[in-house]
Amino acid sequence: MIRFKIDIESTELLDRITTIYNFKRDTITARIALSLSIEKGKVYTEDISSLPQNGREYTPTSNIFGRLINDTDNFTLYKTIFDQHYGKELSENDFVRLYKLHLKDGLDIWNTQLDNCDITKGEHISILLKPIKKGLTLRSNTPYISTDRKKSDIREFQDLLSFEIGTSENNEPIVININDLREFDNRNIAIAGMAGSGKTQLIKDILYQISKKSNYELKYIFFDYKGEGNPEQLKPFLEATKASFVDIVNDGGIDFNPFLSINLEERQKPFSIRAFVDTISTFVPRMGVSQENILISLINDLLDRKNGTYPTIAELFSDLENYYEENSIRQDTLYGVVRDLSTNIFNCDPNNPDILSNSLYLNLPPALSDTLRQLVVFLLLRYFNSYFSSTNDCEPKEHIFPLRYVIVIDEAHIYLKNKNARKALEDLLRLLRSKGVIVVMLSQGVEDYKTKDFDFASQVKLPICLNIQNKDYKAISNFVGTPNSKYKLETEIKKLDSGKGLINIGEPKIIELRQWWRTTKLV
């Protein structure tokens, strides 16, 4: 990474402005100053001489460009901005020369504004707020970041979305205004309940209400990890929510290409490929660094050959098979998993509609290995993560937060027990909360949501505790939130039974749960 010195005047201005704003580091000041110059549209010609190197020195550890993805230096990001600003591929020396010129220009602009304001009245804060407000305005008017991937025409549901989860002991309906910011600052839902507690019937009823009240604009995907879904039995639910049913085994796979999560833009591609391979290595037993490197190399070569289009899993397996044969490598777990993924798991037809365009009930029967079922779920989640990260954050309208999609993860404890999968879920919850996506997790016990390295309940605003085996007070209070009255919570816990749930909204209360099997009789 590069090392350079700036001029003494820029050093003095950096120190002055950093002190005025009480920034922790002068590198923060430098990034803001640079943006002021670039935003103004300043362009230097080639005959402009370099500034003297008589000031502060910046080394690879100075963090002058900041860090963003995988804790890597943002030098490439800044170099790209300068390449675009000057309309050509700059050499490293040209970039450093121009960087120092723009830095000094931005510092001069900023310093002049400070000289003309009253700092004691806080006018120096307004200097920064103006470009920030301008940037936010530009951002809100930009619908999507352009990529090579096919985009769904996902519409934002911008009205209040309410649904009932049950009735109180006084027979009063418990209504959830899930996207009202006055009640919920995030829209994630966690349901804990053992088999027979009613959690599946509850979430089906919630999905029915969401579908109907959003006029079916808000689509969902339901990952049925147990694979117990029967299309005939599910028919009323599927018709009521206008959803498709796909059984991975009996329907010959899902119409989806997992490679779609890879961004083909040259500078993003290495990160996307790495994330794709990390997803596979999370669930493939005994997959080591050498296997990861083989997979990364093969995917890189395959994407280069496809020249801007996406390959299929079958093409990846063909390349992997040839590589193992040519290098006399014995078949291993990586080989087996890629082979299995290429066998009627994914239909990678490029003419497939985008998976986000319709609601989908995905059945993952036990005929598939645990590894394959988990991989299918996380390859799809990887795509959702990639897709929504390339969209703008939703912009609230007064107190209503727009919604775009619903993800339901059944048997979430399977992933919560996997350290690497936990990290992926944590990232997903953090990212998607600003993108208008509701994430619903279903698990067997409240303790599943609190691990030694992360408290998933902290990322959930609507925890619902159904009948569970372990009715430990501390575990339940950690899940539903600290109650106003310990005695009240202890009293309500004793009432838990099949078809009943415990919530802590205002105060702990037992509710009679909504159940799809009851609702279906009225539909």
Question: Can you summarize this structure?
Answer:
The protein is of the alpha/beta class and 523 residues long.
Question: In words, what does this structure look like?
Answer:
The protein has an eleven-stranded mixed β-sheet with strand order 4-3-15-14-13-5-12-11-6-10-7, with helices on both faces. A two-stranded antiparallel sheet has the order 1-2. It has a two-stranded parallel ribbon with strand order 8-9. It contains 17 helices and 15 strands. It is globular. It has helices spanning 8-21, 26-40, 75-86, 92-115, 123-140, 199-213, 231-241, 269-283, 289-306, 313-326, 333-341, 370-389, 413-416, 419-432, 473-480, 486-493, 516-519, and strands at residues 4-5, 57-58, 162-168, 173-177, 189-192, 219-224, 243-247, 254-255, 346-347, 359-363, 405-409, 437-443, 462-466, 500-505, 507-513. Helix content is 43%, strand content 13%. It is of the alpha/beta class. A hairpin with a 4-residue loop joins strand 3 and strand 4. Mean pLDDT is 89; it is low at 136-150.
Distance between the termini: 64 Å
Please bin the fraction of helical residues: 40-55%
Silhouette:
globular
Strands in their spatial order, largest beta sheet: 4-3-15-14-13-5-12-11-6-10-7
Taken as a percent bin, the fraction of beta residues is: 5-15%
Count the DSSP helices. 17
Mean pLDDT: 89
- Which runs of at least 5 residues are low in confidence (pLDDT < 50)? 136-150
Question: Structural class, from secondary structure content?
Answer: alpha/beta
Oligomeric form? single chain
Q: Tell me about the biggest sheet?
A: 11 strands, mixed
| Number of DSSP E strands | 15
- CA radius of gyration is 27 Å
Pfam families: DndE (PF08870)
InterPro entries: DNA_S_DndE, P-loop_NTPase, T4SS_component
Protein name: DndE family protein
